[in-house]
Amino acid sequence: MKNIVNIAYSYHNSNKGLTRIWTTLPMDHHDVTCTHSPEEKVIDDGNNELFYFTLKENERFQMNYSVDTYKQNEQKMLTDKEKAFYLRSGTLVVVDEQMRNLAHEITAGAETTMEKARAIFHYVVSHFKYMYPPKGRGIKSFLEAKQGDCGEYSFMFSSLCRSIGIPCRSLVGSWANSKMNAHVWNEFFDEQTGWIPVDCSMAYIQKKKKTQFLFSNVRTLKWTAYFGQLEQQRVVFSYDAELYLSPKYNDLDKQTIVDSKYPPIVPFQIDGQPFYWGYEAVEGCVPYMQPIYVQFDQENLSIKPNKNPHNYLGQWKITETGALGFFSKLKSFSYFIFFISIIFSFLLSSPFFSALTAGSVIVICISFIARRERALFYTVVALYFLLPLLSNISKLV
């Protein structure tokens, strides 16, 4: 069953001079509304479509499109190029002797690809702690700190799988129901089944912090289910991190950046070194495409850096359609009614507002249940508020 969402993306070049932009947004698809045409399009060995264009000073890029939410990929075979691409070593996802030794230790006794990947999944979930923002990016930092966000969990899973010959990729995308709610997870390839989804960070949160998503619009699963199953409430921006940028990214010399009048912000470190987003790449690659990567004009180093995250990632909003979209809006409206009614019920001690408070809670619960978000919990809550609702209605009549 399709779950179509509408995606609105925009980027305003509030910088000095030209801003070069690479993106994996589907700029040339027939059903896309877009203010710009790509100047160049490249398809990499992992079948990612990368588009390139430039924005003049104060120019705005806007794009709207609809897409089905993420579902398990049905591809059953990989070409030699695809297999090599998803087994490669990089700066963030490293395949070396240390990782090979660790991966073999974790998977000792496992025979099939599925058994090995499952062992890696349990190891990553059990041995690392979720923390945002991370101190650094990449598995070297993750191994040292033993904590990181969804990106680091996915890089670690990819690195361990690739180290023992299992093609694996990090999927960079977003939750499909809000503004700029980025997320990263994995797929590994099994020759018997195809691409299989895995989300180690969500598994950790559901295992250790069960209440974190209690009131959110994200449908959650039992933590072990995140090996092989997802909730179909996300969209994909790119298949894998460290995608090669074409045209070539013209890195500024790091010392030139450091010695500039106004050094830019450092969002994170890679291998203990500051990474300057918008002024350098990672061995010619974007660290991750979410859903753009930019290169600012050098003259921006002569002014105070823009700390607005929209200057680095742009803005996106994802709106659900159909029944999910309806119950999402109903939930938001019911929250508003709940807060208004609870204030008046305390001020006026009126059975009308008490009934309205209980009724709004029940409607909120029904919305959660209809969206299949923690249905058992919200069924119990709805039943709990049913009695005061009926009691206050009886007082009114």
Query: What would CATH call the architecture of the largest domain?
Result: Roll
CATH class group of the largest domain = Alpha Beta
Summed over residues and divided by their number, the pLDDT gives a mean of 94
Structural class: alpha+beta
- Main sheet overview: 4 strands, antiparallel
Q: If strands are numbered along the chain, what order do they take across the biggest sheet?
A: 3-6-1-19
The CATH topology of the largest domain turns out to be C8orf32 fold
Principal-axis shape: globular
- What sequence of helices (H) and strands (E) makes up the elements? EEEEEEHHHEEHEHEEEHEEHEEEEHEHHH
- Unreliable stretches: none
β-sheet strand percentage: 15-25%
As a percent range, the share of helical residues equals 25-40%
Number of helices, counting only DSSP H or I runs of 4 residues or more = 11
Indicate how many domains the architecture comprises. Answer: 2
Cα-to-Cα separation, first versus last residue: 45 Å
Features:
23% strand; alpha+beta; C8orf32 fold; four-stranded antiparallel sheet; 397 residues; 11 helices; 35% helix
Describe this entry's structure for a reader.
39% of the residues are buried. The protein folds into two domains: 1-320, Roll (C8orf32 fold), CATH 3.10.620.30; 321-396. It contains eleven helices and 19 strands. It starts with a strand and ends with a helix. Helix 3 crosses helix 6 (200-208) and helix 9 (322-348) packs antiparallel against helix 10. The protein is globular and about 75 Å long. The longest helix is centred in the C-terminal third of the chain and has 27 residues, at 322-348. Helix content is 35%, strand content 23%. InterPro entries: Papain-like_cys_pep_sf (IPR038765), Transglutaminase-like (IPR002931). Keywords: Membrane, Transmembrane, Transmembrane helix.
